[in-house]
Design a protein that fits this description.
Pfam families: Glyco_transf_9. The protein is built from 16 helices and twelve strands. It has helices at about 10-15, 20-30, 60-65, 65-75, 95-100, 130-135, 140-145, 160-175, 200-210, 225-235, 250-260, 270-275, 290-295, 305-315, 320-325, 330-345; strands at about 5, 35-40, 55-60, 85, 105-110, 120, 180-185, 215-220, 240, 260-265, 280-285, 300-305. The protein has about 350 residues and is of the alpha/beta class. Helix 9 runs parallel beside helix 16 (about 330-345). The chain has two domains: about 5-145, Glycogen Phosphorylase B (Rossmann fold), CATH 3.40.50; about 160-345, Glycogen Phosphorylase B (Rossmann fold, 3-Layer(aba) Sandwich). The radius of gyration is 21 Å and the shape is globular.
Length: about 350
């Protein structure tokens, strides 16, 4: 039995978009053991994933303490993997290939003066479709050695029916009516530069809720709670907006999103979760987040808008500041796309 280790400890979006590597290797080696290394707060998202046998989590304490981190990597690599793919390719992640030198394939990204523990250093492709396509390029050394790689671009979040039911009951207790459309609104972001003008966001939310007799959910992490509550207050504490459905983990957030009809808002990890659940999603991209890269596997069910869309359409010069560029995206430009998606996917 082949033993494969994939290292991708970063944030939600990166970790989800790298799972097509797991999907492709599962199809290529149906009976292999495939282990996935991620940060501990993200790890629950990959529980029960058909393409992942074991989720290995790096704790916050291990991230901060180099001795504990090295001990963890040493312990993990005692399994003697046949293939190690270091998608991170940092001095820290390279420790897996250093301690796992018995692996026939030790694959990492090519970087100057680095990767001495790799058997294969992969350069980033000059042309790629999106971020998933770039990640799958890490399998090229296996293909070049004669292995018939069964490429699969799918990325997904897998929940049980009981998990979805449990969250639906919690949402019902909070006052949500499942006979009306439910929108999950991403009003905030972990990175401030990704946050669309809150005034525009509030206008968009009001229009959607009024037009479709819908309900909105403001989800949040503990650090974002006050921001969400403030926006709710600024909207007059509308009864069709719910900021009272708590999620205690990233997996519970996925359960919440699985019970929504549509995701709308700032681009980020939660939108990738929505797409992984195949909940119709619409993302608003800041000027510093490239839609082509991060809207992987884009289709009519999962769409987005970025300032470059407007710049190309109007054939105008790029504004001088990040703020001016982001202001090109207005509720009036977003709403027709939401209307189209509602007509196609929401009853």
């Amino acid at each position: 039995m082949k033993k494969i280790l994939i290292v991708r400890f970063k944030q939600i979006g990166d970790s989800l978009l790298a799972t097509p590597i797991c999907e492709s290797l599962r199809k290529t080696y149906p009976h292999a053991r495939i282990d996935y290394v991620v940060y501990d707060h993200i790890a629950p998202l990959f529980e029960g994933h058909p393409a992942i046998d074991n989720v290995i989590s790096i704790t916050k304490e291990e991230r901060k303490n180099p001795f504990k981190y090295a001990a963890k990597v040493w312990k993990v690599t005692r399994l003697k993997y046949d293939i190690i793919i270091d998608i991170m390719s940092t001095p820290k992640s390279e420790l897996f290939t250093l301690f796992g030198r018995s692996a026939e394939y030790r694959i990492g990204r090519w970087k100057p003066k680095r990767g001495y523990t790799y058997t294969h250093s992969v350069k980033e492709p000059e042309v790629s479709r999106d971020k998933v396509d770039k990640f799958l390029h890490m399998l090229k050394p296996l293909e070049d050695s004669g292995i018939d790689i069964k490429y699969d671009t799918t990325y997904r979040v897998v929940l049980t029916d009981n998990e979805k039911k449990m969250m639906k009951e919690r949402m019902t207790e909070a006052g949500i009516d499942f006979n009306k459309p439910i929108f999950a609104f991403a009003i905030n972001s972990r990175r401030p530069e990704k946050i669309w003008n809150p005034e525009n966001m509030k206008k968009l939310i009001i229009t959607i809720l009024d037009k479709y007799n819908a309900q909105g959910i403001f989800y949040y992490s503990p650090a974002e709670k006050e921001f969400a509550k403030n926006i709710h207050r600024e909207l007059g504490d509308r009864e069709d907006i719910f900021s009272n459905v708590t999620t205690r983990s990233i997996r519970e957030l996925a359960m919440l999103l699985s019970n929504c009809d549509m995701f709308v808002g700032n681009e980020g990890g939660p939108r990738h979760i929505a797409q992984g659940l195949d909940i119709p999603s619409f993302a608003i991209f800041s000027p510093r987040a490239e839609k082509k890269e991060w809207l992987s596997n884009a289709n009519d069910r999962h769409r987005g808008i970025e300032p470059d869309d407007i710049i190309r359409e109007l054939k105008i010069e790029r504004p001088e500041t990040h703020k001016e560029e982001y202001e090109l995206i207005t509720p009036e430009r977003v709403l027709p796309i939401i209307d189209e998606m509602m007509g196609s996917y929401i009853n």
